[in-house]
Amino acid sequence: MHSNFKQSSDSKAKTDFSVWKNKMSLSRRIGFILISYFTFFLSIAILCIIFIPYADITLRIFNAIFILYLVPPLCARLLLIISPISLGIVTLTSNDFIKWWALFNMQVIFSRLPFLEEFLRMIPGIYGPWLRLWGSKIGRLTYWAPGLKILDRSFLKIGDDVLFGADVRINSHVMYEDENKELVLALDYVTLGDRTMIGGYSLFTAGTIIYPDQATRAVLCLPPFTHFKDGKRLKDDTKKENPAYGTNPLQIHL
């Protein structure tokens, strides 16, 4: 098993390097690297706002909080308005992948420092509107349990009266190897219908749809583009439209 895992990891590394070296222009590679510095420059800006004595410390802290919580989602929303991303299966050499990469890096600071989001969840009525700034569609009266992890804050559709268990993880993107052994990105909304209850420690991936009035068990791991209703995954024609359907979540690259 260890040998198979090592071979799989080596194969993935070779695929990643091949795409990076042979299928991307130099300017595109430089663009990817520069985008990756978004969190670094945001952090530097916040530190400068706090420690450069241009005003009273209270005003400086307020400005820093404003920059931290509003600039990333507003930048993301502006990007989606100017240049929307085509959802579904995205190739790594496409412009849609670059746009997704930019969105992802705008959110990295909140993934690195999860207490920043936990702070928002402690204030009633704040977290849902903040997710809407990113572009998500959030209903009323959602219970956000501790430890909830959301990687793609622009790609959520959550209905009314939804309850999350502890440490649920929502990944609206996954990366996997397609039939041609090419690394691709599956990207789509995770949709939770009205009055759903999500069991703790679950993982929902790209394109997952939980129908209204469903209660999922704990530690439920759903592959990309899964439809869940009546306590089970639906068998339908999703696979024909989405090649990532049914991919083992343990074999994909989150």
Commentary on this structure:
The chain is α/β, with parallel strands linked by helices and 254 residues long. It has one domain: UDP N-Acetylglucosamine Acyltransferase, domain 1, CATH 2.160.10. 43% of the residues lie in helices and 16% in strands. The chain is built from 8 helices and 15 strands. The chain has helices spanning 2-22, 26-35, 38-51, 57-82, 95-112, 115-121, 127-134, 238-241; strands at residues 88-91, 137-138, 149-150, 156-158, 163-164, 169-170, 173-177, 183-187, 190-192, 197-198, 203-204, 209-210, 221-222, 227-229, 232-233. The strands form 4 sheets. Strands 2-4-9-12-14-15 form a 6-stranded mixed beta sheet, covered by helices on one side. A 4-stranded parallel beta sheet has the order 3-6-11-13, with no helix packed on it. A 3-stranded antiparallel beta sheet has the order 1-8-7. The model is unreliable at 1-9 and 243-254 (pLDDT under 50).
Short synopsis of the structure:
The protein has 254 residues and is α/β, with parallel strands linked by helices. The chain is 43% helix and 16% strand.
The largest sheet, given as strand count, sense and whether it forms a barrel, is: 6 strands, mixed
Number of strands: 15
Structural class: alpha/beta
Question: Ranges with pLDDT <50 over ≥5 residues?
Answer: 1-9, 243-254
